[in-house]
Amino acid sequence: xxxxxxxxxxxPTGPLHIGGVRTALFNWLYSKNQNGNFYLRIEDTDKERxxxxxxxxxxxxxxxIGIDHNGHEYIQSQKIKDHINVANELLxxxxxxxxxxxxxxxxxQKKRAKQKKIPYVYDRKWRDKGESEAPKNIKxxxxxxxxxxxxxxxxxxxxxxxxxENNSIEDFVILRNDGTPTYNLSVSVDDHQMKxxxxxxxxxxxxxxxxxxxxxxxxxxxLPSFAHIPLIHTIDGKKLSKRDKASTLEDYSKIGIIPxxxxxxxxxxxxxxxDKEIFTLDESIKYFNLEGIGKSPSKxxxxxxxxxxxxxxxxxxxxxxxxxLIDYCEIFKxxxxxxxxxxxxxxxxxxxxxxxxxDDIYNNxxxxxxxxxxxxxxxxxxxxxxxxxxxxEFNRKIKEIEILTRENLxxxxxxxxRANKTNxxxxxxxxxxxxxxxxxxxxxxxxxxxLGKDEVEKRLTHKTIS
Length: 466
Hints:
The chain is mostly helical. Helices cover 47% and strands 11% of the residues. The protein has 20 helices and twelve strands. It is elongated and about 105 Å long.
């Protein structure tokens, strides 16, 4: 039995799409589950739109979410000669022919089809004509000689048996008139040369699969198994495109989604195993199978991603969470001073409270990160004369304490409540505003302890509130 081999084959013409990430994930997990190999093929034959920066971004994005590939990246543009050789071989074997139709002729056929409101299918004009009849001023394309009679059944590992009439597949172009190969030829040759055993991709490729099967059969190659997974739709039920908000992996890393959380979400987007929701990486590999993939499109739900991310923030190891937070800040925000990092790490247990993203934790940490307090103008109005007395008195009393602990601070706060005939909010709110610039934020004891005695005393004597 052949060793399982799968691949992910993105085009470096833009940032990695979230649908592509899920396709890569399913291929990777299937290979891992079967102790096989997973390869990355960069389909960079669109010279005008392909860019090195997008290739680097694709590789970086897959690494970010934890998908690694075997060996070096397979670069499609380096294999063009092999694709052209196969086209010429198909020509020699009588499975392809030269088509001398002009662009005007093809456009006219397309126009007539549009008027009749039927799909355009090339009329096979040059299928049985000899080159002696060819016009001298037209460079031909090479078309594959598709089957005209009978039907073909695709035994799809997700969709089940899919049958089509062979005459519905046109004689498609495999070599353009400038000598460059087309998608279906290049993909077929690459997949054969890479010894792919399973092609797992979006179900928008089904018609391509029927074309590629015919190339395989004409060349006498062993067919791989095919699995077509339903596409991802927006919450409104429309096909997700690159133009949609939150459609690329970068959109999620920017707002502070954790890689493990997004991977878990994408795993469950169109695949299920019993009623299990949360999967460790090892569990994902252990339980993944093609039978668990549904046949209907899945809807991308940002609120569900945030909920999954919140679960991971609450439950993952805090050292790991801290390291991810610092990496996130350095990439998308700004570098944090070492002393501030130490304070954030010690305070992470409450800073992560109710946080759905790393960005939320970053925002909760602002009072630690910032050297200068930025006061909310409306909140500052709450610092009246009574509040100023409370702040001053609290500052005086903590000078008598060596180490700030909750046990040491609670009696001081209770005494201030009694002396000023107020409640906990009446003391806590002015202190929070004085220390953070806002009436919103973590618990007052957590704020005080996290800042440390020197910083608290400094902030409570700030000229704005004195």
